[in-house]
Amino acid sequence: SITATTAAHVAGAASVVVTNPDGQSSTLANGFTYLAGPTVTGVTPNSGSTAGGVQVTITGTGFTAVPTVTFGGSAATGVAFINNTQILATVPAHAAGAVAVIVSNPDGQSAVLGSAFTYLAPAGLTVASVSDTLGIAAGGYTVTITGTGFVANPTVTFGGTASATVAFASSTSITAAVPAYTGGFGYRVAGDDGNASPWVGVVPVVVTNPNGQSATLADSFTYVAPPTLTSVTPNTLGLLGGQIGMSGTGLWDGKDAPEPKPFLATVGGSPVGALVGSGMAGQLFIPPQAAGTYDVTVTNPDGQSSTLTNALTFLAPTRLEKVDATGGGIWQVDYALSGGGTYRHYARIVQDALGTLSGETLDTGTSDKYIVTTGETTGADIVVGFEISYNGVPQGFVTCTGTIYKAFGQPQEIRGTFTATDLAAVGSLGGTATDTCVLR
User: Fold this and answer.
1) pTM score > 0.85 for this model?
2) Is 241 in contact with 287 (CB distance < 8 Å)?
3) What is the per-residue pLDDT across 230-239, written as a single tens digit (0 to 9) for each?
4) Would the pLDDT of 258 be above 60?
């Protein structure tokens, strides 16, 4: 047994010859095979940030599983053997400048490609814009962030909350999933016209590179709160419907959108209309509905909605059952005035199935004035309007607003207060809007 150090040789099989000092020798043909060492011919991409982290493809010949790779003397990570002409590696961090790439096979042979990869000093990190600056509070959508100096694997926060998914596109562009908003909301007035914008939370967007560099774009993203419907006024209507007011927060009129967009309202799941609100309140006419109690839902243009359960009740009208010898509905209308005495008219009041009231002229022969009744009954509540004229000249309107006592059967009576457009309409005795009216 002897040991020897191989001499340099071209690749391929070689005979091994041993010769003793007395000149005797022996040859083992093709006893040792010289293997060709690796070569490195290219790196793609051949440049990147000093922070590293970019995966590159190294091409060449003679690679074996699994080699080691260095960039300017720093070991690469994530080295993967593809075949004898191609391997993958993740570039380590390094100072700016061109460096050699060395690939070493497990047998110790290695290859060097000088100035194969250039480390680029990052541009100053800045955040210039966010593609969408307005979004719903639940998050979950993706925006594009532009700026300078981005490198692979940055982090992004919106108002201090980290994005779960960030994708590096280039040194000037990244995308990020917007996280849900956890802060508070405030009411804001936008524009010289004082129009109200949504109930919102405005936050900064911060991009941080792996080396700790960060840049902030202040007040660059606006979360729009979901609406909160807190009340409907009035909360009862007659079967004819009518005007209601809605109060709450975040009732968005879309003033920040390219075109104003009203929120939509539904009653009991059926659309009843759309209106432009003011962020805190809105008005809406509700069409006729069947008797019952309904949920009311408002939905903003961005799809966020709020439902107030059992918010609005449609009351069937109390039936008027006034009868008399002439066959129907003649009421004695008395105004009890604060100035003393009463002022009396007579009217026939006719009620339909929806509670709408109409009437007839009955007392022109006694006072040269006449009464035309209009109004509506909502449950036991009633509004009756009288237009009074003298010698064909309108004297004004009187409205009695009251309650029907005794819902069914005789004797029914309506008690309430009146308002008048002109107090002369109730005679020369004078009166105020708090005086009483009684229909019996």
Assistant:
1) no
2) yes
3) 999 999 999 9
4) no
